[in-house]
Structure formats: C-alpha cells, structure tokens
Amino acid sequence: MARMGDEDGDEALVRTDALPALRSLNVRVKLAVLSGPDAGKVYPLSPGRYRLGSEPTADIVLPDRAVSRQHLVLEVRENGVRAVDPGSRNGSYCEGMRFSELEVRPGAVLTLGTTELKLVPEGERSRALPLSSRSSFGGLVGNSRRMREVFTLLERLAQGESDVLIQGETGTGKELCAEAVHLHSPRAKGPFVIADLAGIAPQLLESELFGHVKGAFTGAHSDRAGAFERAHGGTLFLDEVGELPLEVQPRLLRALERRQVKRVGANDYRTFNVRVVAATHQDLEGAVTQGRFRGDLFHRLAVLRVALPALRERPDDIPLLIDTVLSRLGKPPSALSDTTRLLLSQYPWPGNVRELRNVVDRVVNLGEEALPDIPDVPASASLRPPPSGDDPESTLSLALDLPFKEAKEQLIDGFERDYLRNLVERCEGNLSRAAREAGIDRVYLRKLLRKHGLDAGGA
Can you give the pTM of this predicted structure? Predict the structure, then answer.
C-alpha cells in the first residue's frame, strides 16, 4: 500500500500496484471526497480500473461503516467513466438514484454509505466547500448537498460588502436568496429595495434606477429618488439584470464604479452607500460573447457569484419543501397523503420551487385532481429503485393484477418499507440523522416506521 497526498496535505490510501498507471498516464479526472470519514481527500484517476470499498486491499479505501468491503468499481477510460456496483449491501447512488451500472458524467456526485464522491474534471478546482449544518437560509430551504454548499457560500459572502450576482432558472428563489443575503449582512437594518428590470418599461428604466427631477420628461411632475438613492445604507436587488438594454448599461456601470448617480434632467451627482445584488436566469457570459451584454458590466456585477440549482437537480429536498409549504399555509404534514407525496417526488418541476409551492397550495385546496400530469418514469437497465427482499419484477406483476387503487397502495407500501429499512440501517438506527438524510420531519419518520412495523433497533 502507498499514500498519495492531496491539495490540503491529507493523504489518500491507494494500492501500490495502481501507482505506475497514475505516474505514466495523464490525469483526466479526480475523485474528491465531499463527505464521510475521508472528507477532503482527492484521488487522481488515470485510465484504468479502480475498486472502491472498506476492505484494506481495495484500490481506494473508504473507511465508512456503511460502505461494503467491495462496494463499487470505477472503469476510467479516455472518453468517460463507468461505475459498476457488484452487489453492495447499501447500494450506490448518483444524484439520489440507485444504480447498478452507470456512465458517470464529470461533476456528478456518487453516494456510497455516508460518503459522497464527486468526479472533478481535469483543471477544475477539486477542493469542495464544506457543507453547512443549516437546512434553511432566510427563505431558502434544503437539506441536500447542493443546497448546503450554497448555504455555506451565502454564509460567507453575506458578511462582506462586495456586489453579488445570483444565477439560476426561473423559480429557483433568486429574490429569496438576495433578501437572505441582506438579512444576514451588516446592512440588515437598512432598506432592501427591489428593482424588477424586466417589469419596467424601457423608457422609464433610467428614472427608476437613478431618479429624475421635476420637468425632466412628460409626466415628471415632481422630483423622485431612484432605486439607488432609496437603497442608501442597505441593499439594492437588481432582478433580471440580463434584461437591461445595452444603451442603459454604461450608466449602470458608471453608478457601480463611482457609487454616484445623476437624476434624469439634473446636473449634479448624488453619492450613495449601497450593496448591489443582481440576479438573472440568463447566461450572461454567453450574452457577453454575443454582444448583448457589456463584459465590463458583467465582471463588475459578478464580484461574487452564486448559482442556485434547479429543483430537478436536488430531488432529495422535495419532501422538506412540501412540509415547508404546508407549514407556511398553516397545514399539518398529514394534509397530503403519502401517495400524493410520492407522485410529487416523480414530477420534473420545470417551474422549480415556485411551481411546487403553487401545486401544493392547489392540491391542499382542490384535492388530487389538481396534481400536474406526472410523466411515466422510463425503465432503465442501469438505473433502478432500491431492491427489496422479494423480486421487484414479480412484485410489480402481482400488483398489476389488482384493482388500480389497491395496486398503487401495495407498490407504495413496498417502496416505503424498503426505503425505510435501508435508511435506518444506513444511519445505524440514529433517527435524527435518518430524518435529515431523508429530508423529512423526525415525527413523520417515526409515524412511517410505526406504520410498517419497523423501529430504529430492528429495522
């Protein structure tokens, strides 16, 4: 055996006979350990075959009690990485889905027991952010690895004064993110002013941002302070900054650089003390390349950057988000049936968290008829749900012979029982940890365990 150092001085254990390949071939990807007993270690992977497991003879040893002795095999090729689970006890997961064989894309996260492993492309910084202990930051909610990384970043940047650019699809919570940054910053007692650039008529944009004096244009019957002045001492949120017309962008850049504005029709400049947080769903770097957005303005806005993940990239958070929405509506978790929750977990959520919030509200008030059309989950030879003690195909065949309602309840009960048994075993009977990993309330977890005759000690 030999040890290989990572960027932070930690050592990663690999077999000595794997080292010649690592020395003689160019490293294409790295395997970064995000969580688990070996969190922080990084393994360079050259083309070859790597056995991952807890046994000392594995190529990459993972000292995790929930990892099998021979848990996973990574086949690293010039054109990609293939992961094969030879039959581990607790299974291997990629982005929340259990698999037996999988072509793993760079950037994907594999979960083995309590250990999370990320494939990092060559040249990309392999050092991962530590995971926040939070399950929320302001109005943002999530227990998933992706969101806890975001919370760590927000915790750090909120304390500063640099401008921030938030990027993410429509409905991911960019405004909530901006408000949370404000509320956790030293400017929390100051104003939080929102300028929705997509909702302002182009001819009024300069007046909205910089203000105007009486008589500057038709309808300007009195002096008016712009958003920058109104946000003095606090935070200005520029929503959908990618919609800003090219002709207005130089004035915004000048205001950001000088921290001064001149009202429309005025001759003098006014100084302001504002932190700017901008947001967009657009690819601003692509817009710069296409000449639709100024490069100097982009770099001035993006001193610090936050990318909010789409809901389909963090499906583990759906149960927690559902409970959060119900709580904000003043409804108990039981307001939605287990069947409805399972159906909601299968929906792709193109409108992200905003759509989920609206759907839950409608279902609570109108019933299951208000559910969106749930697409069929495609069958796959390489991706499959966690197996139970029985043959899943025979169980499915038996269920298909039953009436619809009874068949659906039987399949859902089987899924819940297998999921809970695996969860409690993986978490070694620790219900608090199990509730966190499952993204559900601890009381609700106990209810499910009692329903299926399971308990933390005997599940």
Answer: 0.61
